[in-house]
Design a protein that fits this description.
Layout: H1 3-17, E1 21-26, E2 32-34, E3 37-38, H2 45-51, E4 59-62, E5 71-75, H3 80-86, H4 91-97, E6 103-106, H5 110-119, E7 123-125, H6 132-147, E8 156-158, H7 160-169, H8 173-195, H9 203-216, E9 220-221, E10 226-229, E11 250-254, E12 257-259, E13 262-263, E14 267-271, H10 278-296, H11 306-321, H12 329-334, E15 361-362, E16 365-366, E17 374-377, E18 380-383, E19 397-400, E20 403-408, E21 411-414, H13 423-429
Bound molecules: glycine (GLY) and manganese (II) ion (2 copies).
């Protein structure tokens, strides 16, 4: 991403903070998986959003109007020995030269430098509770100032995330193009997985088609992949991905990727043998109709909940027609009877995080959709085996269809356009490249 993009974000945030404020934001902490093995390191989304800096052990300080520099980075020093093991470091020199910091210091100097900066400010913008170690540190800096007679201490602590997350909710052109790329790679991966599918494969072999395509294009999984066949299609957070696909099964694959830090989140459901049974098709068509109804509600001035309400209405009416719910549609909706089969919401914000930041309500009201907001649209119906009172022919049918959209000035743009969505398109692709 262009360095000017990061500079613009910092300027926007600093305008919100104003003179006399200082924002503190630590980098993500590396996490141990087991003994000497770490999880793949990924920078904190907020930290990345403001800096583009991807190393651990760093601290961002933004102090609008500070004469000696507004944008400060603390980071690891260059170290020939450590760099042999772990790879190159920017060092404070690189933080200034390559990441446009006004000034940069070794991370080991924070205790000497940051309290003096805080002392000159009235308001500290910092989100408490996310990083207990760093919370302690910030408190010790303020405590030390208080203990020092005559030192000025800030009057206010303000959560940084409210301001920052509102900024992140509105995607710029550069962000939308990064998200379009993440969606495009996911489309290629879903196509590949569908085309290579056949009964007899294991779920993990389908998962491998996704990771193959992601890595081939320089992307990674953006969340734990869900590849659930037969009864597993009804388990919302199914991750074992180790069952063998049987003829007649549906397969639900919720797999997205992260490219340049931006996520896609895409689900397709298909019959592993390439032909929906009548019952599978009926549920599939219903979920598709719900998704179309939800998509129609995505435009400026619509509210966050409108797509969900449209999906609920279609699904409730459809389940009643199929005999899976009994009663009047209005009553069924009021009593949330649909939740037995459609137990999640129709979407969430999407961006640097799969479940991206941003408030869904403002005070009592659902938020209004505005250009630049990105979200998923993902209705589903799940009928697990042994569902009481439900005829057996419906058991083991779990369908979700999930696409990614961004709100535009006159409607929305479907980022995942081009991936088969109708039952016919899906049937035509499944097994086309099976070996
Ligand atoms: N893959 C997570 C979700 O659909 O929200
Ligand atoms: Mn999702
Ligand atoms: Mn998903």
């Amino acid at each position: 991403m262009n360095p000017r993009e990061f500079a613009k974000r910092r300027r926007q945030l600093m305008r919100m903070i104003g003179k006399g404020g200082v924002a503190l934001l630590p980098a993500a902490t590396p996490k141990i998986r087991n003994r000497d093995v770490q999880y793949y390191y990924r920078q904190d989304s907020d930290f990345f959003y403001l800096t583009g800096f991807t190393e651990p052990d760093a601290l961002l300080v933004l102090a609008p109007g500070r004469a000696a520099g507004e944008y400060l980075l603390f980071c690891r020093e260059r170290d020939r020995e450590r760099e042999t093991w772990d790879g190159a470091r920017a060092g404070p020199e690189g933080a200034v030269e390559d990441f446009a910091a006004d000034d940069a210091f070794p991370i080991s100097d924070v205790d000497d430098i940051v309290p003096g900066i805080i002392e000159q400010c009235d308001r500290v913008y910092y989100t408490i509770g996310l990083n207990p170690d760093f919370d302690q540190r910030v408190m010790s800096w303020v405590g030390a100032l208080r203990g020092r007679g005559g030192a000025h201490t800030p009057d206010e602590f303000i959560a940084l995330d409210h301001l920052l997350h509102d900024l992140r909710l509105y995607k710029s052109r550069a962000e939308i193009s990064a998200m379009r790329r993440a969606a495009k790679i996911a489309i290629a991966a879903h196509r590949r997985a569908m085309a290579r599918c056949r009964p007899g494969l294991f779920e993990y072999e389908i998962e491998a088609e996704y990771t193959h395509e992601f890595r081939r294009q320089g992307a990674r999984l953006s969340y734990l992949p869900i590849v659930g066949s037969g009864p597993n299609s009804c388990v919302l957070h199914y991750h074992a991905n180790d069952r063998q696909l049987e003829d007649g099964d549906l397969l639900l694959a919720d797999v997205g990727c992260e490219s340049d830090y931006y996520a896609s989140d895409v689900t397709r459901t298909w019959p592993v043998n390439g032909h929906f049974t009548d019952e599978q098709r009926a549920i599939y068509e219903l979920v598709l109709e719900a998704q179309d109804a939800a998509l129609e509600q995505i435009a400026p001035r619509k509210h966050w909940n409108d797509p969900h309400e449209a999906a609920v209405e279609v699904i409730t009416g459809g389940l009643r027609k199929l005999g899976l719910l009994q009663g009047g549609v209005k009553t069924l909706i009021r009593d949330r009877a649909y939740k037995r089969f459609f137990m999640h919401r129709t979407g969430h914000w999407l961006g640097l995080d799969v479940h991206d930041v941003g408030d869904y309500r403002i005070a009592e009201h659902w938020r209004m959709l505005e250009p630049g907001m990105a979200l998923t649209v993902e209705p589903g119906i799940y009928i697990p085996p042994k569902s009481r009172g439900i005829p057996k022919k419906w058991w083991g049918i779990g369908v979700r269809i999930e696409d990614d959209v961004v709100v535009t000035r006159d409607g929305h743009d479907l980022l995942t356009r081009g991936l088969p969505r109708t039952a016919e398109e899906v049937e035509a692709l499944v097994g086309a490249d099976a070996i």
